[in-house]
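Quick note —
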Amino acid sequence: MSKNDLTEDEKNERHKFKMAKRKELQQKRVAAADREKGLLIVYTGNGKGKSTAAFGTVVRACGQGMQVGIMQFIKGTWATGEQAALKRFDDLITYRVMGEGFTWDTQDRQRDIAACRAAWEVVKTMLADERYSLIVLDELNIALRYDYLPIEEVVEVLNARREGLHVLVTGRNAKPELIDAADLVTEMTLVKHPFQQGIKAQKGIEF
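Predicted structure written out below.
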């Protein structure tokens, strides 16, 4: 008998049975996941939404009263909506912007390297600061992609972070070494983007 041949009552009973089994399985999984750990999270991929998802996590952490540190690499010259909004929560959020703009704007590799190195040195002090429960390294993957920072050093430092500290890294083209070290990796896939149709970046959506 196909699903279309069932009565509404039969469909409802089948649904109830399936959901009961799913609930049982989910409860077993929840019970088995009893460890707490500071997570290394990576949002990567060519699709839009990596930084947006990271800032959503920041809002969630602040809702739990957690102190958050944010370091923005690379795209430092734009006045963004998230920067203006999150700075209103300066009692919970430390927001640092140390990039000098997109790499195609600066066109100066040595200057980009110097800016990323300076930002990374600040990040290391943030990682050691016990006030923070979450640190977001926005667009760090771009700095790593262009070898502005050595991936070996970055992974070593992140792996050595104190227990309980969450670190969230964004940017396309995450390196395999970082993906291997991470606890959670999400890849944003580009399906369609307005820029492909000649539509410029929209205030409140992209900046």
